[in-house]
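Thread: Newbie trying to understand structure tokens

Hi all, I'm a second-year student working on a class project, and my supervisor (Dr. K.) asked me to get a predicted structure for one chain before our next meeting. I've only ever worked with sequences, so writing a 3D structure as a token string is new to me. If someone could post the tokens and maybe explain what I'm looking at, I'd be very grateful. Here's the chain:
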Amino acid sequence: MRRREFLTLVGGSAAWPMAALAQGRALPVIGFLHSRGPEDAAYLTAGFRRGLRDAGFIDGQNVRVEYRWAHGQYDQLSALARELASIPVSVMVSGGGAPAVVAAKSVSSTIPIVFAMSGDAVKLGLAESINRPGANVTGIDVFTTVLDPKRLSLLHDLVPTTDTIGFLVDANYPPSAQQVTDAEAAASAMGVRIRVLRATNEQEIDAAFEILANNNIRALAVASSPYFDTEHKRLVRLATSHSIPAIYHFREYALAGGLISYGVDIVDAYRQIALYAAQILKGAKPGDLPILQASKFDLVINLRTAKALGLAVPSGVLAIADDVIE
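---
Reply by user tm_fold:
Sure, no problem. This is what the structure looks like when written as tokens:
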């Protein structure tokens, strides 16, 4: 080989990684901020990536996704949002409840933000209206907190003889006070009492189940909470070990052995926020994209768990179930 050819070959091979690196830096960046952790939210990120792929974006090829996880520690969200803003990102996606959206909004009034949360974005000061948000925030309302009363009603259908239902809330979750108020009103309308139990860590979750067992409370509604989602396997395991029929808000609880879950198809919601993020990358303004309302809901019943509890699921509840685990 001639020396000139050798130098050209070496120079070309050395230049190639630098060119690829430069191309990598040129990729648009999506910041993904979430209240949960990567392991227990893997099915959500799978839905998000599917939405990106449907819109023509693949992580590492023509877009880069930077993930930041709070692992149920809401006080970490603002610092994580600042990290993403400093990259900088072209659009920030926030999930895991209102705390993540508020944290994202607090660090930038210009970076487009797409959320998946339960709550009124107008009342929270995040948007001017549902149809035309107007500022830098849009997304999808996933109704997790507002469905807590409906879950109480479904649980009462399963255990109609109980006169007291436990209601476990995450005391650190900002909507928890309203969740309790709504649950108390729903319980009163059904003619039952609720025993409110508050937990913010593993020890308090364990203690709550001891209280249920010691007071012979034979039904439990677990209020929606990103922190509880990170602990969903513990919650299901404790309900099973104490033989307590319990209802939850996401399908993952029923798949893990929980008795029943009712809530939005959250994977589809994450697919939809990915589509919104893609539209923004293509030039759309978040203020022009109406805030969506989740329209797909799942009622999942785990018959194996019902049989283990000695519980007969009413035919009327089975008839409306979207999925029955046998």
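A couple of things are worth pointing out once you decode it. The domain at 3-143+266-296 is CATH 3.40.50.2300 (Rossmann fold). The chain has two domains: 3-143+266-296, 148-264+298-325. Feel free to ask follow-ups in this thread.
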